[in-house]
Design goal:
Length: 115
């Protein structure tokens, strides 16, 4: 079992950048790691995912702007977000998934993009 804690959310102007971090208190190397987000009144959606073999997937809406990375030695996952838009405003959640059998979520961190 792992406990996930996100950090790095903030208020940022359009066009700005943020780096989110997800720290785990357990070993993450066996888990596919992902970032999801949920905006008010909308369903939670996948933003980016990185597999145990470092294969990366991105939602079309963030391709070219966001980059996911993982440091298994530090049990941490990152989401680098550039060229932020107001529609990126949401609570961002970290996820650890093992073959869809075991999945864990963090508490979320708020990202607000507004001038």
């Amino acid at each position: 079992q792992v406990t996930l804690m996100e950090s790095g959310g903030d208020l940022v102007q359009p066009g700005g950048s943020l780096r989110l971090s997800c720290s785990a208190d357990g070993v993450i190397l066996i888990y596919d790691m992902g970032w999801y987000r949920q905006a008010p009144g909308k369903q939670r959606e996948l933003v980016a995912r990185i597999s145990t073999s470092y294969y990366e997937e991105y939602a079309d809406s963030v391709k070219g702007r966001f980059t996911i990375s993982r440091n298994d030695a530090a049990n941490t996952v990152y989401l680098e977000m550039n060229s932020l838009k107001p529609e990126d405003t949401a609570v961002y959640y970290c996820n650890a998934d093992w073959k869809t059998v075991r999945t864990y979520w963090g508490q979320g961190t708020q990202v607000t993009v507004s001038s």
